[in-house]
Write a structure and sequence with these properties.
The chain is of the alpha/beta class. The chain is 48% helix and 12% strand. The strands form three sheets. Strands 1-2-3 form a three-stranded parallel β-sheet, sandwiched between helices. Strands 5-4-6 form a three-stranded antiparallel β-sheet. The longest helix has 36 residues.
Length: 292
């Protein structure tokens, strides 16, 4: 990450610090790599940040003796320099202790949150920097792109809410089987999945009657293993048409076939996406029968 020579390395480090709003110093059991001056690069960074007046947050391990072997300095000279640096970094400022990674993470988050309030800085763009025309154009383009993404996300969320409503909508399908009245309940999505192929070209009351009878026959065969003549009630047909109108899915009346609205065609593709909340009989229409 750093340039090859020591001079270039320091110049690079100082440039990074110049762009920082806060300087976070974490001291464990090692003093760090030495520069040609005999000081560690970490201590030189600290001195530079202090000279520049950048807020410094220090996180100190309270007891070097408790740090596992291999993560501490073993040479006496290095240990002494670490001791002196710990004292220097602790002087004149509040220091937070840490003993493990989780404790260190919590201490840094808490300290930075307080610093944002007590010592607010300018952030990623300095107040002294005046954006040029090219930068302003980029910002404008990014904002436009962001607005477009936001509108797309809102549209997608609205569609998902619509699908959830279809799942929650329950329609009672009343019918006679062997002259005995019965009622089966289906979600709005399941009913749509059954009749969508017909809605594309125009759904009449006769078409709906036959389609619902097929759905009932298939369901009763699966559930009870019986077959019987099916007669769908007229009130059920009216309920389904009212459902299509209420959800603004299709338009039609007593004399004109009900047709899927143009703006709903792409939206209705999702009706055929498997959903765990659907009625178990929702696989009655196969994927190759999707009409779009």
């Amino acid at each position: 990450m750093f340039p090859a020579s020591n001079t270039e390395q320091l110049t690079y480090i100082y440039k990074i610090i110049d762009d920082c709003d806060y300087y976070v110093l974490i001291i464990g059991g090692r003093y760090g790599s030495l520069s040609e001056t005999g000081l560690s690069y970490t201590e030189m960074e600290f001195d530079y940040a202090k000279k520049r007046g950048i807020p410094i947050l220090v996180f100190l391990h309270p007891d070097v003796a408790k740090i596992e072997f291999g993560k501490v300095d073993t040479e006496a000279d290095q240990r002494q320099k670490l001791h002196d640096f710990r004292s220097k970094a602790s002087s004149g400022r509040i220091v937070k202790d840490w003993e493990d990674a989780k404790g260190l993470e919590a201490a840094i988050i808490t300290s930075l949150t307080s610093a944002f309030t007590e010592e607010p800085q300018t952030g990623w763009r300095r107040d002294t920097e005046e954006p040029d025309e090219k930068s302003l154009r980029k910002i404008s383009n990014l904002q436009s792109l962001s607005d477009a993404h936001r509108r797309a996300a809102e549209s997608a969320q609205n569609k998902l809410r619509g699908f959830e409503d279809l799942d929650r909508a329950e329609i009672d399908i009343k019918f006679l089987g062997n002259d005995i009245p019965h009622v089966l309940q289906f979600s709005g999505r399941r009913i749509l999945k059954q009749i969508l192929p017909l809605l594309r070209n125009g759904l009449t009351k006769i078409d709906l009657d036959k389609s619902l009878a097929e759905l009932i026959e298939h369901t009763t065969n699966d559930m009870m293993g019986i077959e019987c003549p099916i007669e769908v009630s007229r009130s059920t047909l009216e309920d389904v048409f009212m459902f299509l109108e209420a959800f603004d899915i299709a338009t039609g009346d007593t004399y004109e076939p009900w047709k899927l609205k143009e703006e709903k065609k792409d939206l209705m593709k999702a009706v055929f996406i498997p959903n765990s909340s659907l009625n178990p009989s929702s696989n009655y229409i196969s994927d190759d029968e999707i009409p779009f």
